[in-house]
């Protein structure tokens, strides 16, 4: 912007008209007066002089002064250049607004900061452009205080909102805040999104934008593109705000969503960060691994969320950080925290909390858990985990240790194969019963669903069966493992429970399908009673009674 433009602009501005839009003013002589907005004013101490176009506060210790643009800039807490633009619009001469500001930005981080100020400013200005964003935050019960603390912003629903701010397009493009279209025009990268700034070592390196649109075609979360200074693998959202608490408590809470961090913060959990589970890696862990002893990982509640949690937990084991997992099926932390009366951190930790071994064993099974705890560097922690795993699986600790040693030696591909070769529950049951005298009867419901041959084998245990089975190498290696189980009856009960649940679930989906086809309510009744039984069984499992022969 040339000096000429500014002079021209100010010649058209009446400062009293500008201030009047913000505050009630009163004419006294040739000047105007109002209460000063920049200090706690009881008298009208701010004097506006239309003749020279400036304001000055005469309140004790205040002394704020400036022209119409400085008033707007101070009052709205926006950059001076932006205030000039507002003035230019006010007087109907947008052509006099500041244009490119090439020299004002030294680098990408500076222009990021400037863009963030614009995004924040529009979010917190009661403007129609951003009313849906404020509504979205209200719906999520994010307070303005939290939004300001985390420096949220909003990119309006326009392809050229940022482009139209006339900043340095080259630098904006470098910062990935705008893109050049095939037609050679610039357009905004973030559109109609809540903007979360990402800081790294005090530099604003990039953003994540959460869409307010409903279209399935656009990504829910959009990150700045990867560049030399911004890597998704470095993304640890909330670290800048919560690092101090994390270091003080030596504990970190890891979630997958930006909003989760905000929600938790509002509920007093001020040591949370968000990572993108699939990108979690050494860069993020390096930030906190020295200062943290324990991590609480909150699962997203769905299948992908479970996978991510296990990956993160495995990673932390290698860094000697204890993992505690909170998992509520089908609910993410944002869901949990949104309703104040239902959010109870204590309860989440006790009722829905698991240690890593428990969680991994429940969702991935024994082999997979063993493989994952093989990363322990601390022998004491490893033996603690083996003890838990021994209790969960029924295998002797010594045996698990031996097995673990095999895992450590085995190349990765072999481990994957082992997983593929996992036996079906039915096979496992057969091998178990073949291998020893098991004093656990198979209930009628299950008996009717197992293959006749299998039931026959279990009942009669023909001579030489074990050896016969052992001809199959897969069975042989499994038999030798099963032979080492301490409490085989308990293991049998667990297996029978699992098989019962499996067939009950099959029954449910079969009846659901039949009901859909026939609309006959008897199928619906079947579904209902079966679901009741499943829940009963799950409850018993939770209370430590893994098996009940009372099931039909
Ligand atoms: Zn004042």
Q: Could you walk me through the main structural features you see in this protein, from its secondary elements to its overall organization?
A:
- With 552 residues, the protein is an alpha+beta fold.
- It contains 25 helices and 16 strands.
- It folds into 4 domains: 3-96, Alpha-Beta Complex (DNA Primase, Chain A); 108-230, Alpha-Beta Complex (DNA primase DNAg catalytic core, N-terminal domain), CATH 3.90.980.10; 239-364, 3-Layer(aba) Sandwich (Dna Topoisomerase Vi A Subunit, Chain: A, domain 2), CATH 3.40.1360; 422-543, no CATH class.
- The strands form 4 sheets. The chain has a 5-stranded antiparallel β-sheet. It has a 5-stranded mixed β-sheet with strand order 13-12-14-15-16. Strands 6-9-10-11 form a 4-stranded antiparallel β-sheet, with helices on one face.
- The chain binds zinc ion (ZN).
- Residues 36, 38-39, 41, 45, 57, 59, 62, 64 line the site of zinc ion.
What's the helix and strand layout?
Elements: H1 3-12, H2 15-20, E1 26-28, E2 31-34, E3 46-49, E4 54-57, E5 65-67, H3 68-76, H4 80-90, H5 108-124, H6 131-139, H7 144-149, E6 153-155, H8 169-174, E7 178-180, E8 186-188, E9 193-200, E10 203-211, E11 221-223, H9 239-249, E12 251-255, H10 258-266, E13 272-274, H11 282-288, E14 294-298, H12 303-317, E15 322-326, H13 333-338, H14 345-351, E16 353-355, H15 356-373, H16 379-393, H17 397-409, H18 412-420, H19 425-435, H20 444-447, H21 452-460, H22 465-469, H23 473-482, H24 488-518, H25 521-542
Parallel strand pairs: 12-13, 12-14, 14-15
Antiparallel strand pairs: 1-2, 2-3, 3-4, 4-5, 6-9, 7-8, 9-10, 10-11, 15-16
Helix pairs in contact: 3-4, 12-15, 15-16, 19-23, 19-24, 24-25
The protein binds zinc ion.
Residues 36, 38-39, 41, 45, 57, 59, 62, 64 line the site of zinc ion.
């Amino acid at each position: 912007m040339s000096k000429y433009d500014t002079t021209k602009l100010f010649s058209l501005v009446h400062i009293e008209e500008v201030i009047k839009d913000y505050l009630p003013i009163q004419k006294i002589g040739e000047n105007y007066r109002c209460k000063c907005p920049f200090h706690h004013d009881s008298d009208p101490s701010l004097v506006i002089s239309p003749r020279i176009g400036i304001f000055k506060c005469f309140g004790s210790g205040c002394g704020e002064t400036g022209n119409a643009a400085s008033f707007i800039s101070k009052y709205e807490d926006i950059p001076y250049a932006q205030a000039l633009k507002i003035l230019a619009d006010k007087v109907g001469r947008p052509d006099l607004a500041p244009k490119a500001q090439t020299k004002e930005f030294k680098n990408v981080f500076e222009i990021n900061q400037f863009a963030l100020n614009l995004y924040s400013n529009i979010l917190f200005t009661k403007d129609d452009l951003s009313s849906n964003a404020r509504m979205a935050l209200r719906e999520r019960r994010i307070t303005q205080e939290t939004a300001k603390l985390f420096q949220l912003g909003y990119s309006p629903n326009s392809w050229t909102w940022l482009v139209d701010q006339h900043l340095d397009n080259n630098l904006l493009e470098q910062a990935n805040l705008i893109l050049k279209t095939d037609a050679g025009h610039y357009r905004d990268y973030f559109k109609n999104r809540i903007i979360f700034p990402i800081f790294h070592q005090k530099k604003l390196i990039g953003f994540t934008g959460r869409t307010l649109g409903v279209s399935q075609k656009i990504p829910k979360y959009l990150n700045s593109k990867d560049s030399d200074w911004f890597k998704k693998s470095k993304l640890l959202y909330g670290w800048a705000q919560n690092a101090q608490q994390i270091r003080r408590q030596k504990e970190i809470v890891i979630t997958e969503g930006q909003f989760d961090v905000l929600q938790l913060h509002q509920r007093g959990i001020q040591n949370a960060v968000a990572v993108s589970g699939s990108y979690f890696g050494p860069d993020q862990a390096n930030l906190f691994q020295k200062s943290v002893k324990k991590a609480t990982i909150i699962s997203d509640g769905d299948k992908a969320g479970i996978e991510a949690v296990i990956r993160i937990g495995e990673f932390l084991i290698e860094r000697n950080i204890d993992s505690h997992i909170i998992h509520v099926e089908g609910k993410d932390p944002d869901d949990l925290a949104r309703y104040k009366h239902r959010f109870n951190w204590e309860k989440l930790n006790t009722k829905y909390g698991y240690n890593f071994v428990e969680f991994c064993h429940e969702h991935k099974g024994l082999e997979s858990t063993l493989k994952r705890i093989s990363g322990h560097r601390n022998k004491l922690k490893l033996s603690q985990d083996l003890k838990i795993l021994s209790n969960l699986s029924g295998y002797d600790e010594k045996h698990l240790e031996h097995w673990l040693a095999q895992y450590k030696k085995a190349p990765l591909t072999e481990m994957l194969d082992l997983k593929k070769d996992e036996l079906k529950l039915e096979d496992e049951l057969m091998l178990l019963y073949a291998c020893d005298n098991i004093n656990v009867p198979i209930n009628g419901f299950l008996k009717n669903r197992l293959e006749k041959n299998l039931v026959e084998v279990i009942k009669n245990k023909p001579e030489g069966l074990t050896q016969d089975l052992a001809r199959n190498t897969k069975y042989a290696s499994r038999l030798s493992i099963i032979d080492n189980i301490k409490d085989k009856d308990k293991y049998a009960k667990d297996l029978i429970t699992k098989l019962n649940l499996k067939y009950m679930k099959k029954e449910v989906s079969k009846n659901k399908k039949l009901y859909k086809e026939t609309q006959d309510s008897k199928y619906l009744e079947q579904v209902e009673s079966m679901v009741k039984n499943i829940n009963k069984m799950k409850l018993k499992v939770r209370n430590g009674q893994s098996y009940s022969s009372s099931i039909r």
